[in-house]
Write a structure and sequence with these properties.
With 162 residues, the protein is α/β, with parallel strands linked by helices. It has one domain: NigD-like, C-terminal beta sandwich domain (Immunoglobulin-like). The chain is 14% helix and 33% strand. The protein is elongated and about 75 Å long.
Length: 162
């Protein structure tokens, strides 16, 4: 009887491991998106500005762990989400509207498409999006990231570049 229980336990464990990949970290650290890469036509690494965009209210679940704007005008995010069996797609988008303030402010939205990944591994990934196309003529803009609950959820884009 004990042998049957052991065999059943081993078989069940093997089945779970085969169906869902084991817990893994991001395959590689985020490469900071630069203006040159964006000009080469990699749309996954740039901010999508759609004047008719309206936030849908929610996307597939994820959590933003950290965010920063680099000197290369890229927004680097570390995100955490469940999955492990299918490719996940993240898209950074805004309607481009600037709030009338000094300096102007703009809200960015991060959308997540899990492709119906039902696996339950907790994954972390670094994402990088070039957001320099948001600022015109090198002006300073305050960027707000929707859904990022931080002590300071605002970032400066082009803060007095010299």
């Amino acid at each position: 009887m004990k042998n049957r229980i052991c065999v059943f336990f081993v078989a069940a464990t093997a089945l779970v491991l085969v169906q869902c990949k084991s817990k893994k970290e991001a395959a590689k650290p985020a490469e900071v998106a630069t203006r040159k890469e964006v000009e080469k036509g990699d749309p996954s690494k740039t901010l999508d500005i759609d004047n008719s965009y309206v936030w849908p209210g929610s996307t597939d679940p994820f959590r933003i762990l950290s965010a920063e704007v680099t000197t290369a005008d890229s927004l680097v995010l570390e995100v955490e989400y469940g999955g492990g069996c299918k490719e996940h797609v993240f898209k950074l988008i805004t309607n481009g509207m600037l709030k009338k303030s000094m300096p102007p402010q703009c809200t960015l939205y991060l959308e997540h498409e899990s492709n119906d990944d039902m696996c339950r591994a907790m994954l972390r990934q670094k994402l990088s999006f070039y957001i320099g196309n948001l600022a015109k003529n090198g002006e300073t803009i305050v960027v707000q990231l929707n859904g990022f609950d931080s002590v300071s959820p605002q970032f400066m884009l082009n803060p007095q570049k010299k």
